[in-house]
Amino acid sequence: MEELIYRLGFLSIGGLGSVILTNYLNNRKSKLEYVMELHKTWWNSDFQKARRNVYEVAKDITFKSSKDYTDETNYFLKCASENKLNTYKTGRQFIKIVFFFADLNACLDQGIVDKKLAYRLFGASQYEHFRPLIKRTREEIEKCYSSNLSPVDISIRWIKETKELDTIFVSEIINEKYNYSKKIHGS
């Protein structure tokens, strides 16, 4: 009788372990699938057009001094400083891209997506191209609000979300460089 109870207990624990393992694997699969859905969105033709146009402004911010900015970049920054990005095409495209990254951060924060895969697909390979522009635009909008002596409108969720994403992705970039350096130097 004791042996039967022992075997039933072992089967119960084994069954519980199986349930836990199955749940873990399903959860992991779900996180990976969601990242891949985001990847499809990022690479659809509509997003590709938006990225191309916005990247022209991002290149100026990243690689030129302000006196050498194109008219498009100057207009973009003027609209940002007046919090009127939604009034013209490139501004609306920027909003689309920046909210993609804001949503990605929210998903990371909630554990809905796999962090490592999200970083590999969107971190240094994508976000990093837009990060200087996003940062500069945040600064322009924050100046707009501070000059009006009113707090930054919390409806501009992307400001908070992209600041958090900066922290996550920049720390991943630092870790990646550190690990690469260790590999090269045999440490």
What's the short version?
The protein has helices at 2-43, 45-63, 71-81, 89-110, 115-147, 157-185. With 187 residues, it is mainly alpha-helical. The protein has one domain (2-185).
Keywords, separated by commas or semicolons:
187 residues; mainly alpha; 6 helices; 83% helix
Describe the structure.
Helices cover 83% and strands 0% of the residues. It has one domain. It contains six helices and no strands. It starts with a helix and ends with a helix. The protein is mostly helical and 187 residues long.
Write the layout of secondary structure elements.
Elements: H1 2-43, H2 45-63, H3 71-81, H4 89-110, H5 115-147, H6 157-185
Helix pairs in contact: 2-4, 2-5, 3-5, 4-5, 4-6, 5-6
List segments where confidence is low: pLDDT < 50 over at least 5 consecutive residues: none
Kindly give the count of domains. 1
State the helix count: 6
* Biggest β-sheet description: none
Give the SSE order as H and E letters. HHHHHH
Counted beta strands: 0
Classification by helices and strands: mainly alpha
Provide the β-strand percentage band. Answer: under 5%
The rough form would be described as globular
Radius of gyration: 23 Å
Head-to-tail CA distance between termini: 57 Å
Mean pLDDT: 82
Q: Level of helix content? A: over 70%
